[in-house]
Queue: 3 jobs
Job 1
Amino acid sequence: MKMKIRLVVLKVLSIVFFLFITTPHLLGQNNDSLNLAKESQHFNLYSTNGDIKVLYSLAITLENNYSRITNHLGIQIDKKINVKVFPNVKTFHAAINYPNAPDWVVGSCNGDELMMVSPLNPGSVHTYESLMQVIVHEFLHIAVSHARGDNGWTTLPRWLSEGYAQYEAGQVNEYIRKSVKSSLIDKTPPTWTQLDTASVMEFGKMNGYGLSVMIVEFLIVTYGIDKLVLLIKEPENIEIIYGLSKDALEKQWIHYLKE
Ligand SMILES: [Zn+2]
């Protein structure tokens, strides 16, 4: 059981980890073998012939989440987003110029383009289902970029961008909650500032993804989505938006985690 929990947590965490490594410079893309194979209202999907049959499900998944996400963020995206589906982990890693990446590296975004491994061939760590969440997660980063205009999403506090992407993609679950709770039995969690200033490696090691989605869940459950969206647009105004000091908010969050 413990192994299973770890595996599920790893799967969820792995999705997001990679973005920091690759964004914003994706060099050496090898997209020649992918063709535009499906268009939906808001997306153009590219794949090899072998993956055409999964594009319908990917397009439906994206479109089913599109209005909720753009409404939450109060944005309109005036062009179609490109989605590139690579036939396996190896070709995806080659495309992102990271040939020796581990198998859990399965998704990325660059500007207004999503790239991911085909859910039909998810590799040794991910599953069809988890890749259906990965694509929504990556779209979230693009949508947040649009909401922030020139500021982009990579300058957001990491707990906020990763936490919100996971939250909207439905990646918070009982396994995450248990992993966060059990990590707090003997110690206090890192502060939000520590989560922001950690390196990518440190962030992963301190269960930063699990903690981040629990922060966002706490803020939405307690104060509503509208304030969270304000925070995404103006994170420097956190104390004005919530009418509390950051310390007081963090204390409330720890209380929320322990409940
Ligand atoms: Zn992410």
Job 2
Amino acid sequence: MRAAILAASPHNTQPWLFKVTDSWIELYMDTQRNVGALDPYLREEHIGMGCALENICLAAAANGYQARVTLVPGNLDPIPAEGMPKLVARAYLSPGKQEQTELYNAIPRRHTNRSAYIPQTPVPPEFIEALSRLTSDEPDVKMFLFTAETDRKKIVEISSAANDEIYSDPAVKAASDRWIRINWSAVQKLRDGLTVDAAGLPPIATAVAKTMPFWMLKWAASRGALGGYSRVMLSAPLIGILAVHDRYDQENCLRAGRIWQRAQLLATARGLAGRPCNEAVEMIDYEKTHKRPAMRVSLLGEILGDPVWQPTFVFYMGYPTLTARASPRRPVETVVL
Ligand SMILES: Cc1cc2nc3c(=O)[nH]c(=O)nc-3n(C[C@H](O)[C@H](O)[C@H](O)COP(=O)(O)O)c2cc1C
């Protein structure tokens, strides 16, 4: 469970709850821990659940268990107004070969790195090959990787425009702000959300940002004073897109989450870092809920060039200029049912 809670989750919402028995672990999603209008079908929260599931499987092997996973099928629905925790997966554990992999060892060191990356240092071909192999046991997920500057520029443009558009909606902003933790006492009390420490700023800027009131920090961020989104994204020599057959299929989301967790752990293990940049896919959800023309489906579809695959997660990777700091977590005791 300690490995599970270190997984990635959208806005660090940590939507998970776990039930542990003698022979299996059940994963439940607390549907109320959501980013509202930014993730109206809980698609990203399900991806986060997949991240936690992957850590459970890696920790099982490291502790001498074989984990056999069953996923709960279903289609994603709009966020329920209230609700009981929802079962999404079960990991059956039986005695197995003890295997402490590089991915398992990277679990405590994996952090989302939002600093700029070193553009002149390309990602080694061996790493790209290893990344591509991560989906070999997940035929429902495909990883598209882009290193050419022309391709990356196109994706950065789409993402940056999506970022501006989606956050111009006050409902999205409010849903996102609910998870921004500025002051230390809120971080200590809630142990979730996005903190200044995780913003990828240099140490002095981090200290200054911590003294700013919330409105000033938001103003600085909107002016690009905290880095400039396109510039930071383009500094990374590799952009990846995880695609599935149906982005609103629950199992597909969980599987994509497992792959993202693996990918970021692999990057960590090999001295690289990564950050999701999901605004373009979030705009796909947004256009769907607002019944607008599916502009981002076509823009991202053109990038992938294969209509069989639907993008569901965008990320970039490379060698970072700064070390990422850890983000808070709710303790295990509060998430085990
Ligand atoms: C489905 C999903 C979507 C995410 N989207 C973004 C994103 O668009 N931008 C970003 O900076 N981080 C994104 N993240 C990273 C989370 O904010 C991060 O995992 C969380 O704050 C916990 O921090 P950690 O990964 O350093 O442990 C995403 C994570 C997940 C699982």
Job 3
Amino acid sequence: MTGEETEISGMLRIAAPKDLAVVRKGLRDVASTMGFNVVDSTRIVTAAVEIARNIIHYAGSGELIWREVKNEKRKGLRLEFVDQGPGIGDPALAMTPGYSTSGGLGMGLPGVKRLADEMEVRSGIGKGTTVLITQWLVP
Ligand SMILES: Nc1ncnc2c1ncn2[C@@H]1O[C@H](COP(=O)(O)OP(=O)(O)OP(=O)(O)O)[C@@H](O)[C@H]1O
Ligand SMILES: [Mg+2]
């Protein structure tokens, strides 16, 4: 991932379905304050809710740390989702369309990959899961 972190950041706890609405509203406000248009704001918010849904389903709880990042050219919004759940043995496989260990559609993570400008999954069995996504603000 590229980009330098700024001081503008915050944290949201994800532990119950009601937290999805808090994530949705919180990020929509952050994205709009940063100047994202409706389309890009909807992309990052939709991706975030999908990752948060996975946290609740597979890990029970976790947190979202959001921060504004900057590179030479642009400002962006980076979201870091961290949980201490069972972890994912093969993160690349988990990002394949149709892969699900819970009888789901297996479209959550592939959807995130499509929606976010950048995505990274760091995980391993027994190691919890960290998902990083970044959306860049078009100047
Ligand atoms: N935070 C997590 N902790 C542990 N495993 C996870 C986590 N997030 C995703 N996974 C694993 O990755 C798989 C793929 O996730 P993905 O969101 O793409 O599909 P899904 O949740 O199974 O179905 P859906 O289409 O409803 O989202 C999951 O089935 C699960 O095995
Ligand atoms: Mg899912």
